[in-house]
Structures
1.
Amino acid sequence: MIQLIRGFKDILPGEVELWQAVEKIARELLEDFGFREIRIPIMERTELFARSIGEDTDIVEKEMYTFPDRKGDLITLRPEATASIVRSYIQHRLYATDPVQKFYTIGPMFRRERPQKGRYRQFYQINAEIFGVPSGLADVQLIFLLVTLFSRLQVPDVKAHINSLGCPKCRPKFKVALSEFLTSVSDKLCADCIRRKDRNPLRVLDCKVPACREAMAEAPSILDYLCSECDADFAEVKSMLKNLGVPFIVDKNLVRGLDYYARTTFEIQTESLGAQNAVAGGGRYDGLVGELGGPDIPATGFAIGFDRLTELTGLSADQFYRRPDIFVAALGDRSRLLAFEWLCLFGGEGIRAEMDFDGKSLKSQMKRADRLEAGHVLIVGDDEIKKGEAILRNMETKNQESVSLDNLVQNIKNKIKE
Ligand code: HAM
């Protein structure tokens, strides 16, 4: 038997109802906050991700699904959505009438990571991006939106972790201090961090290896190196989060795994997912639109791990399963053909109907209706046809009544949608 690829998964009926409900709640909230949907392709030129996420990140170095197409151009299955949204914003000059634009997109992303609970090679994200607002208040709005969504979805134990990564004015000074520190502790670092030390020193700050954590305890903090503008911006973010009653933790080691960030970065973390503790992450990426060939327009955004969200929500798929409104139990060939006509008409009237096609006994049809949790059963046999009526049984109250065959579909619709 052919099985699915490692790290990929099916979302089956029985769980998909939860995905649909979570998606609906998220869409409604995003639209209430003024975000409009944008749909971007699953594949892009590899160069787009290499230039935006950064050549020296884990994602670009070792996790992308990259291959040449038939003409030899290198293409990549998107590992994230931000780069594509920025490309689209620039390509279609979406800034021309108003640089301030808010977009969201929901869909699959691909990263060839080592699969484990909460970590897949095809996973889904809910993304939101705000363009054209330089103020940290846009970052606050995003964090507030996330916290509101998680509360609506009954996600327990979530905490907002925030940090500022400074800007091209102040970050280089911090990098110099950090590199000096890393040289002084290099004999204590893991092999990955030795490599990161020169290529992407910031990433050493969030290494999870205990020995690295210990070695980094005395590392310099980016927050001590912020220029006055970045410092004031971060102070405003913190004070507005307090005003809005959003609990947060300032985490000076939160550096994120993508290179485009500046100033505020954030993650929503939980204790309930083991090692994969981030349900959502994001931050400001003011330089990216310019770096990808667009005008100098600031931006900020987040992505939620949709798979992780469905594992954490207090809602369950069962709450959203739509039971059949009616099961048509027919006895005899004539009745079965009539039942089939009704089945089709019911569907067209928004009434979810099921029937048995194999001429089984009434007892076995009633059993199936029970198993499907049908709200009503409509019973029709040759005797009923002669009398010009059918029997409608309410499966909850067990009441039975006769319904005329004239205009039956409308009559039933009126009765069961009461
Ligand atoms: P990210 O932190 O790489 O950020 O991913 C965001 C979220 O996607 C993570 O917090 C996690 O919940 C989920 N996620 C990531 N990888 C996996 C995986 N292998 N399996 C399951 N879930 C996963 C970004 O992607 C940025 N583009 C966010 C952003 C938007 N920044 C600005 N705008």
2.
Amino acid sequence: MILVTGGAGFLGSNFVLDWLAQCDEPVTNLDKLTYAGNPENLASLAGNAGHRFIQGDIADTELVAGLLSAHKTRAIVNFAAESHVDRSIHGPEDFVQTNIVGTFRLLEAARAYWNKLEAEERKAFRFLHVSTDEVYGSLDKEDPAFTETRRYEPNSPYSASKAASDHLVRAYHHTYGLPVLTTNCSNNYGPYHFPEKLIPLVIHNALAGKSLPIYGDGQQIRDWLYVKDHCSAIRRVLEAGRAGETYNIGGCNEKPNLEVVHLLCAILDELKPGADGRSYKEQIVYVTDRPGHDRRYAIDAGKIERELGWRPAETFETGLRKTVQWYLDNQAWVRNVTSGAYREWVGKNYQDRK
Ligand code: NAD
Ligand code: DAU
């Protein structure tokens, strides 16, 4: 059995769905169901005996200890986190609690469980920590992409809390020998992406006739990866990654935000033309920048390719088209997640931006 945490969120639910589609090893899915966790993402698993969902907190050591020992757990894949940079600027406390304290408690539960395993099981056990390229900070235009040895320079409360969690994971290997793996990935996009993040927000706002907010000059660069490619990379690292190692994961798809939004508008113009015949591009507005906004991220994914033979399957164009189509086909999902508390967030984040 593997224990997946945060498996009702964007990445975690994609990972669980892909995992169970590809193998018969059962998954226990521990998720607190914050605003970002959505059991609807997992609706297709209803009645699947290989999936056991538990609502709970990674910081609840007793709960985690019980889950680990109730089954022969051979790996933990930790997706659980507060993940939105803008929310971390408005309220950093939850980020410290889940990303730092939560990861620490999860590591403690894992260490206690791992210590009691037989020698062979101890050797085979893995704690895979899913992290981000944001821990490395911001790149200038000409800088080389982030490698695994790049100095940590996190700039937001979100990335600082993720950096702290990465350091804890590293320390548990160095000090206690816990067989950990860390992955640092670039920006993902795809199905089940909560519409507070750029790509799903733009699709949702475009279709709703609302403005498409571009922070600052829109020339900030992100390195985009289709979520299913991230999931395949994590499976590969879990299967063959060397304990104690870090693997950077990225799509080699560096794009300025404005170009991403233009591309989305062009795909929407084609797949779902507006009734008035105007391009969705006309809904673009420039708004006040994100405080401390990182200018550029870029991942050097050479290590995972050389050592583990992983490469992404999708290009940005094919992945983006699939994503837009998914949102068009799943408007009921979008309606459900954008009701209620989501509206409060949109008010908070955008009302003071000029
Ligand atoms: P998300 O916000 O969509 O999902 C996070 C999930 O964790 C939610 O289901 C939430 O309910 C759950 N959760 C939050 N606090 C919890 C707690 N204390 N205990 C148990 N569950 C809890 O995030 P995501 O985009 O799926 O990201 C998942 C992980 O991948 C995060 O660690 C993030 O830092 C990392 N990451 C994300 C991206 C990206 O582009 N989305 C890229 C690289 C790395
Ligand atoms: O790099 C990996 C990270 O990618 C993950 O660690 C995070 O969990 C994930 O949320 C994502 O962080 P970003 O801050 O890059 O993603 P977001 O979608 O919020 O923003 C992408 C870019 O678009 C960023 O430069 C800010 C900009 N943006 C975002 C929003 C929501 C806008 O211009 N307008 C917006 O309304």
